[in-house]
Every structure is written in C-alpha cells, then in structure tokens.
Design brief:
The chain has 18 helices and five strands. With 432 residues, the protein is mainly alpha-helical. The chain starts with a helix and ends in a 9-residue tail after the last helix. Pfam families: SecY (PF00344). It is a multi-pass membrane protein.
Length: 432
C-alpha cells in the first residue's frame, strides 16, 4: 500500500490531478464559511445548538454550510434535481432530448448545457423559498431588513454559490480525479464527521448512570460502520461476467477474430447516485413543509414522509430501487450493446445475435441490478432504524447513507487512480 501511494506521486499527470482536486476542495471548504449578507447568524447559532432535526440532513450533505448560511448553503442539490429531470426527459418524453442522448459526446454536451440552465432556474426558486421560509419560520428575525430587494440579493448570492459549486465539480471531473459532483458531496459529508462524533458523545455519555449501556451502543455503532464498509466494498466490487465469442474472419491472407472475452456487468452499476437522488427527492417535500409548519398538510408531511417514519422508509426504499434500475439502464443500453456485438461479429454462446442477445442482457442486468438495489436500500435504511431505536439524533441516523456515499465515492476514485497507475506499468491498489 505504501509503495502504491509513493507511485502515485511519481506520475506527473496523476500528481497534478490529485493536487488540483485537493485545491478545489480547499476552495469549497473556504466558501462554506463565507456568510450571505443581510442575515442574522445568531439565529442560526441557536438552531445549530438545538440540533434541529429538519435541516440536520441538509446540513450534513452541505458540510455545515446550511447552518452557517454561507454562499454554499444550498450545496449542489439544485444541480442534482436538474440532472434527474433532464435524464427523465430523455426517456422519450421530449423527442429532441432522446435524440441528443443517442448522439454520443455531442449530445451529452447539449444535455449538460440544458442541465446547467435548469440548475440556475431551480436554484433561484429554491433560494427565494429558503430565504423567505427561514425568515417566516423563525419569527421574521432571520433576514435583516426583509424586503423584495433583500430577498432578491440573498437569492442571487445563493444561486451564484450553487452555480460556482457546479462549475467546481465540472473542473474536478475534467482536470482532477473522480466525479466532481460526487467528490464535493463526499467532502461535505467527511467535513461533518467530527460534528457527528461530538453529537454522539454529548448524547450518549452525559448520563453517568447509564454509562455501560451507552458504551455498548457506541460499540454496536462502530461494529455497524465496519459491516457497512465491508458490505459496500463487497457489492461494489462484484461483477457478473457474460462470455462473448468473436467469429473468425479472413481478410486477404490474414485471419481476424476467434478470441473469447467477456462483458463485466457490475452488481451495482449505478454506484451511489441512486441514494443521492432518493435523498434529494424525499427531503424536498419535508423541507418545504417545514416552512409552513403551522398548516395541517405540512404537519402531515413532516409526521409521515420523514425517512425514519414507516411511510417515509417505504418511499425511500422505492426511490432507491427505482433510481438504481433507471440509472443503470441509462448508463448501459442492452440494445446498443447487442448491436455493437453483432457488427463486430461477436455473440454470447447459446444466444442468437440481435434481439435475443439484447433480451438476454436485459434479463441478466435486471437480476443483478435488483440484488444491488436491495443492497443499497438495506444499507441506507437499516442504520436509520437502529439509530431511531438507540435514540440518536436524526442527523446521525442518516450515517448509513452518508457512509455508503463516502465509501462508494472513495472506491470509484481509487479505481480511477489505479487505472492511471496501470497504464504507466505501476501496481495499483487492488490488482493482483
């Protein structure tokens, strides 16, 4: 391991990419402490001290930027929401989007531009709602001199912060290591880990009369964390190999083809993206309801749709499973894969080329994706249930999801680093 780490710094391009990524993350963390003008931070100090359940999760994923109400308070969530909408529209909802999705890199660039525009629009709407909602919820003491001009300035600053985060993520993807958006979420979660540790300590070790029971709880928490890490690594590394045989072809005096290979289909091809999407969508109505907490419908939403409530858990599981299938089949198109194999003279032994091949690939992908989706749902939901039974705060209860995202992003980033090392004949982290 130490030799592998030393090899990383011997590759100039890889060293530059890693240092660039760390520099971008430093900018992100500095921006998390730059407050938005015309807000009273003392109000947020009381919110932070009380450990508000409603915004604890959003604060966790923003790396504490929400309770600082910094320029990055909305984090990257508007971009995630815009990405979900654009990807849904490519499923033959808008023919032009579906056409762009099939055009390769050129089409991806057009869809990425639409996603950026959607991020700005959604960010502006969410920024207005956040500023007005917080001020209304906390007895109109949050915004200094509330007026349309003040709200507009706050909304523009928050939207600019989200747009800047989106740009930073794209720069990491292009010039750094890993998926930029996932890396930013990863950094936000990791930055919140010390706060979770302090919360657990303050919550579990204050009462000396139950010290033994609280120590037992902490031991069980640590054990659950280890099991989650092991499980995530096991499933993320799991693949199903589809054998492929290429027919022999004679061109002139040379013979081509005839070799055997395989198509590696990952058990969890969608990674942690479905969990991020599911959290974003599930928290959206709960967050909006918190701004109108005196209304009957808002009270029902907060009482039933939170992720530690029975209905909220069911919706959370359904969203994770649905997004896992959706994102996996967006990334891997069985029909295109079968057509490409047919053009190159390849076939799966025992399966006829063309439509039978695509049907077979779809069936195999559906089975292994179901296993991966159920695993993601279990890892995300079980720690929440255990945390609720142990009486932990909601922000800590989401630790299973946070840990899943952290480990998944770390694995994906590690694979990219290993690919760079192997290309230069260095031994990687997990290759034998």
């Amino acid at each position: 391991m130490l030799k592998t780490i030393s090899n990383i710094w011997k590759v100039n391009d890889l060293r530059t990419r890693i240092l660039f990524t760390l520099f971008i993350l430093l900018i992100y963390r500095i921006g998390s402490f730059i407050p938005v003008p015309n807000i009273d931070k003392s109000v947020f100090e009381t919110i932070d001290a009380s450990g508000t359940d409603l915004f604890g999760m959003l604060n966790t994923f923003s790396g504490g930027a929400l309770f600082q109400f910094s320029i990055f308070a909305m984090s990257i969530f508007p971009y995630i929401t815009a990405s979900i909408i654009v990807q849904l529209l490519t499923m033959d909802v808008i023919p032009k989007f579906a056409e762009w999705a099939k055009e390769g890199e050129a089409g991806k660039r057009k869809l990425a531009q639409i996603t950026r525009y959607g991020t700005i629009v959604l960010g502006l709407i969410q920024a207005y709602a956040t500023a007005i909602g917080f001020n209304r919820q906390y007895q109109f003491q949050f915004v200094i001199d509330p007026s349309f001009a003040t709200y507009t300035m706050i909304a523009l600053v928050l939207t600019a912060g989200t747009a800047f985060l989106m740009w930073l993520g794209e720069q990491i993807t292009e010039k750094g290591i890993g998926n930029g958006i996932s890396i930013i979420i990863f950094a936000g979660i990791v930055a919140g880990i010390p706060g979770h540790i302090r919360t657990i300590y303050a919550d579990q070790f204050v009462d000396a009369s139950q010290l033994f029971l609280n120590i037992l709880k902490v031991v069980l928490i640590v054990l659950a964390v280890v099991l989650i890490i092991v499980g995530v690594i096991f499933v993320q590394q799991g693949i199903r190999k589809l054998p492929v045989q290429y027919a022999k072809r004679v061109v002139g005096r040379k013979m081509y083809g005839g070799q055997s290979t395989h198509i590696p289909l990952k058990v969890n091809g969608a990674g942690v993206i479905p969990v991020i999407f599911a959290v974003s969508l599930l928290m959206f109505p709960v967050t909006l309801a918190g701004f109108w907490s005196d209304r009957a419908w808002a009270q029902w939403v907060m009482a039933n749709l939170y992720y530690d409530k029975p209905l909220g858990m069911v919706l959370y599981v359904i969203l994770i499973i649905g997004f896992t299938f959706f994102y996996t089949f967006v990334q891997i198109n069985p029909v295109q894969m079968a057509d490409q194999m047919k053009k190159n003279g390849g076939y799966i032994p025992g399966i006829r080329p063309g439509k039978p091949t695509s049907s077979y690939i779809t069936k195999v992908m559906s089975r292994i994706t179901l296993a991966g989706a159920l695993f993601l749902a279990a890892i995300s939901i079980l720690p929440i249930g255990f945390g609720a039974l142990a009486g932990l705060p909601r922000s800590v209860q989401l630790g299973g999801t946070s840990l899943l995202i952290v480990v998944g992003v770390a694995l994906d980033t590690m694979k990219q680093i290993e690919t760079q090392l192997i290309k230069r004949h260095y031994k990687g982290f997990i290759n034998k």
